[in-house]
Design goal:
The chain is mainly alpha-helical. It is about 65% helix and about 0% strand. It has a single domain, classed as Serine Threonine Protein Phosphatase 5, Tetratricopeptide repeat, CATH 1.25.40.10. Helix 3 packs parallel to helix 6, helix 4 runs antiparallel to helix 6 and helix 6 runs antiparallel to helix 7.
């Protein structure tokens, strides 16, 4: 994530590739393995967004949403909907973007309406309608 924070999305993608073979595995001996396994996929999605590669970003965020049993209650499972919507917008797919925004907003329907990420998501959703 350091490379990503420094604006080096290509370097971040190179570093994150090493985790790809292991991110769908979990530790059988403890709950520790159930949290964080898909963080490399989430970070790769963020790096693809930073590199303006929406199609690849969408694939990474979909991976998280397709493996909810690994993500369990990890916050990336909820935020992946929003990031997926952003990736679809970036790739020009407004129909899927709208659907992903709706999924995110449905999940957050009972949240405090003043939470910054929720306010931002609502504003972004309004622009794709």
């Amino acid at each position: 994530m350091l490379a990503l924070n420094e604006g080096k999305s290509t370097q971040a993608l190179e570093v994150l590739q090493t985790a790809a073979p292991y991110e769908l595995g979990t530790h059988r001996s403890s709950f520790v393995g159930l949290f964080g396994n898909l963080y490399p996929s989430y970070a790769r999605g963020e790096a693809y967004l930073a590199a303006h590669r929406g199609v690849e970003a969408a694939a990474e965020f979909r991976k998280i949403l397709e493996h909810r049993g690994i993500v369990v209650s990890d916050p990336i499972g909820a935020v992946a909907f929003l990031q997926l919507a952003r990736a679809y917008v970036m790739s020009g797919d407004r129909t899927h973007a709208k659907s992903a925004y709706e999924d995110f907003l449905k999940l957050w329907k009972d949240a405090d309406p003043n939470i910054p990420i929720l306010k931002q998501a609502k504003a972004e959703y309004a622009r794709v309608q």
